[in-house]
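[User] At your convenience, examine this fold.
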Amino acid sequence: MSLLDRLVLIGAMSVSFIPHGLAQDNAQASRAPELVAFASDEGITRFARAGAKLDFPALANQFEAQSNAAFCGPTTVAIVLNTVYAQSKDLPRDRSRLRSEDTQYLPSGFDLTVPRFTQDNVIGKGQKTRARVLGEPIRLNGTLVRDTGYQLRQLDELLRAHGLGTRAVIVDDKKSVDEIRAELVDNLKRAGDYVIVNYRREAVGQRGGGHISPVGAYDAESDSFLVMDVNPASAGWVWMPTTTLVKGMRTFDTVENRGYILVQSR
């Protein structure tokens, strides 16, 4: 297949893969000049030539947007779990979104829910409670603080609680850009294991604070990673230069720096 044919195919595929509203929000998605929106011509070109993108199809197939500002972590976990356990016969059923009147006309014993992990039902297995994720104050070093969302190690614990093998990496001053790039690219060249990044939006040129999302691909020519942002209303999927992504991860979060998690299937 020629490059032109591939670009046409990728362009057509992007209509299905890109969350609603992402395509028309290119300017918002790449607030910083070095961030390139996935839905742009350049973004599609990078994807077409990317050599490390085996995680992308499964992640895109299971992608969903976070339902509230604190759920970037649970949403990312749900996406990854659904890629890993897609063929499992014992997926959980989340009935929390059904209203009582939704089931009144169904045949007896019929379950309307779709078996899958959701950003609501994944939280229960972790040590961090839903209340704490949503801002319930806790005492830290004698001070009452709100630990909203997930720190990197807290998210790692949640993934492990669901049976996944993981390696959490804190991005401190000892971790070089070259080492980080090599580890992420190596993962993205294999199907069945995944990369999750935890970075600070302000440090990468976006609006907002700490954020978590999966990574779908790496383009060597531009030295950039495709961050599949789970909050497309804020800043859709973007190609982020390696140095920019590392800068965003090399930021402090409550007790230590942010970083990334390398997820194994099982």
Notes: Residues 1-30 have pLDDT under 50 and may be disordered. The CA atoms of residues 51 and 219 lie 6 Å apart.
